[in-house]
Write a structure and sequence with these properties.
By secondary structure, the protein is α/β, with parallel strands linked by helices. It is built from 5 helices and 39 strands.
């Protein structure tokens, strides 16, 4: 944990206006109900005003509308409390530094290029000809295949596997047990079974991509699979061969994207979304939870449902269904009377 900050220092850091004592010492961030006298909390709106009134937090980040509401005497007035909280949290809870070191049990292949201040954990394997950028942090039991290129400040948590032919840009973070660049699920029927289609394409993760635990991104069959700059991928996501994903997308838990699908920039796929193969999603598309995308979507589309349809249309259809449901018995009775007549 970092050195503590006074409430005044936090206000200066987040560009807020301090109200109340500025010498309160803050050591951590917590929620309103769990915060103690050394913690910074936030209140985002009036629905949480009652919780703030009972909070024991040392200081609270609040919007201007709650500057005079009940609660802790020290509050920091900001335009956007969640964003200010993120800034304060990074200052009060910085990532612990990792001393550059290569564990004695790590296996480094022939011709590996290591940048400055690289850290490689116990029992990790770095394949022949791999290139590891400066300040890369490779955890325990990681496998980096032959010829893999890792950019500067890459972080591979324990048990990550990066297959040969993959390229990771700067500041890419793969969390525990992610698998990058494995052969995709591609087979051709041959009359007696299924013959595997060779996968000879690459797998490219651009700068600032994050990949969650147990997520798998397959290499391309002929073309490369590519994940655009700044895209964030949650846990338990499968991205198939030849998929192209644009920049700054958010791919949430348990999503499956089938082969050769193309996603534009800033696409949001909520939990358990499925995207079929060979379709195109434009820029700024949003797909609600459990949506099944079976056709191309234009820029800015907001869809939900299976098959996915425009959000408002889907809600109207659901509302209509529930309105009709109470009349089901009546309709059945009328149908029976007609049959008996």
């Amino acid at each position: 944990m970092a050195d503590p900050l006074t409430a005044q220092a936090v206000a200066d850091l987040v560009g807020g206006r301090l109200s109340g004592p500025g010498d309160v010492v803050l050591r951590r961030v917590r929620s309103l109900d769990l915060a103690g006298a050394d913690a910074l909390a936030m209140c985002t709106g009036r629905k949480y005003a009652a919780a703030m009134a009972e909070s024991r937090a040392g200081a609270v980040l609040v919007p201007a509308a709650l500057a005079a509401a009940g609660g802790p005497a020290t509050r920091i007035v900001v335009a956007d409390p969640p964003r200010a909280m993120f800034v304060a949290a990074r200052a009060l809870h910085p990532e612990p530094p990792t001393a550059p070191a290569i564990a004695p049990t790590a296996q480094i292949g022939r011709g590996v290029q290591l940048g400055e201040d690289v850290s490689i954990g116990a029992c990790s394997v770095i394949g022949d000809g791999a290139r590891i950028g400066a300040r890369a942090r490779i955890g325990a039991h990681v496998v980096v295949g032959d010829g893999v290129a890792l950019g500067d400040d890459v972080r591979l948590d324990p048990h990550v596997v990066v297959y040969a032919g993959a390229t990771l840009g700067d500041r890419v973070w793969c969390k525990a047990a992610a698998v990058i660049g494995g052969a995709g699920f591609g087979f051709a029927p041959d009359g007696s079974g299924h013959t595997r289609i060779p996968h000879v394409g690459g797998c490219i993760l651009d700068d600032d991509v994050e990949v969650g635990s147990h997520s798998c991104i397959d290499r391309g069959s002929l073309d490369d699979t590519r994940i655009g700059r700044g895209t964030k991928i949650d846990n338990h996501v499968h991205i198939a061969h030849n998929v192209h994903i644009g920049a700054d997308c958010l791919i949430m838990a348990c999503v499956g994207i089938a082969g050769s699908a193309v996603l534009g920039n800033r696409v949001v796929l909520a939990g358990q979304v499925g995207v079929v193969d060979h379709i195109v999603l434009g820029d700024d598309v949003t797909v609600g939870a459990r949506g099944a995308v079976m056709s191309n979507l234009a820029d800015g589309s907001v869809v939900i449902g299976s098959p996915a349809r425009p959000h408002r249309e889907y809600l109207r259809a659901i509302a209509t269904m529930y309105k009709l449901a109470p009349h089901g018995n009546t309709l059945e009775s009328l149908a029976k009377e007609r049959e008996d007549a």
